[in-house]
Amino acid sequence: MCGIAGRILSAPGRIGDDLVDLMEAQRHRGADSTGFALYGEPLETGYIVRAMAPERDKLSADLDDFLAILRENGSDFLADPTYDNADTAHVSVRMTIKDPKDFVTWSRQADTMCEQLEIQSVGRSLEIVKDLGGASEVAEKHNIRDFIGTHGLGHARLATESSVSPTASHPFWARLFPDVAIVHNGQITDYYTWRDRLERKGYRFMTYNDSELIAVWIADQMAQGSSQAKAMKDSIGQIDGVFTYLLCDTDSMGFAKDRWAIKPLVVIEENGQMAVATEEQAVRMVYPGNEDIINYDGPSMTGTWQISSVRKAA
Amino acid sequence: MSEVVVTAGDSPIREVNIEIRARLAEGNSVVVRDTRSRHNLGVGLPAGAKVRFEGSVGYYCGGLNDGAFIEVERNAGWSTGEAMATGEIIVNGYAGMSTGASMRGGLIHVKGDAGPRCGVAMKGGDIIVEGKIGYMSGFMAHAGRIIALSGADEACADSLWGGEVWVAGPVESLGVDSKIIEPEPEEVASVEELLAGRGLGDNSREWQKIVSAQKLWHFESRDASAWLMI
Question: What are the tens digits of pLDDT across the range B125-140?
Fold first, then answer.
């Protein structure tokens, strides 16, 4: 069992604050780890990189290695990297980088040092922040509530299929596609079959979390020219298991639900803004009034909301 | 019987339920405010109790009901009235998945639509849904009646063992091992009488009564492919 949430604002605002409220209300669905995919004002050029290093003591050396790979690819830091100063061994790092000459080449090369410094997201706008603990603890450690942006995702994890670690939690970046992220509630039952197929095609998995498969699977569909909407629709017939997941980029947020209608999704849309979550009590944290809710409870459903005007296309 | 207010807010649900019971024990009926769609409200309420929830409730509201009258002003989450023995639950809005799961008796009356697997594994009692019942409603039910006044989603009455699913309006598709049969006039009269007693009388309805085709009663693994939906 996990809890997911998404939030879209009609103009940049305290997106982090809303997402923490949405996730805190679903803490009972899993509090071993919590994560956020936050979309701030997009950069015109350059990328924001969020990464995690398992050994804080070695961070400075790891960043030197990371920078060397950046420079080999015609990129550089645009500012000094920042990181949390908690007393945990692992450390979360935020970097802004110049556009590499070739994004995919750089990204693949940077991933070769994933055991030292694992990239968790790259985007003009997207920042994935995830860690151990419930929403409040993660929010406090990483200052999530003060994040200003237009939209984002949240995830509360109760690990059922793989280990608990800060990197194995959600959201997952659709590797090699800047700004694309997913959160998932469910279990993927043909995980190893798909993982094997995708690894043969050259995709790298960072964890044994079955939800990472959805992110990699979507990236593979996009690499073949599929739109996100089509990929979500196709995933229902091709990925086996019970799932409700949210897929987000800078322009849109979508959802897909499995054939068995197992995992719920509750939505409130009002005045160009939207909140979506696993449970009604979460969306009521941001809409405490009498707004009507929509329950997407049926089987094989997908939908997309546009970020600018929050229109749903079924 | 005087009506007293209990506020749920962010109090621990155990404390809210203890307070509801304490107020009921003093001979009051109870209105619960600021429900925030929280789970497990009003579970295991005793016979004679009368509790109304303002706003919406979360999962398992009125579960293990033992004879109480419970009303939810708006929506209910999963498994409203799960395993209830007797009593009555009214949901004025939408009732989420698995409404009346494993219920043994009593009545659940949903004024909006009901989500997937309404009446899953029910063993008795009646569920009335004025709207539409969701995907796979009646899944593996053993006894009792589900009565839907505005149609049924796909795979209606899937793997029904016993009991009846009554649908007025379109049935999008039948689930495995269920069939539509012609109801006896006295059965229709019994359903209409129940509905009339709730202000829903309408003798012009065209009923589809769905029951088990009873083939899964004697399941053989060599026949498994006949039951696979995908």
Answer: 999 999 999 999 999 9
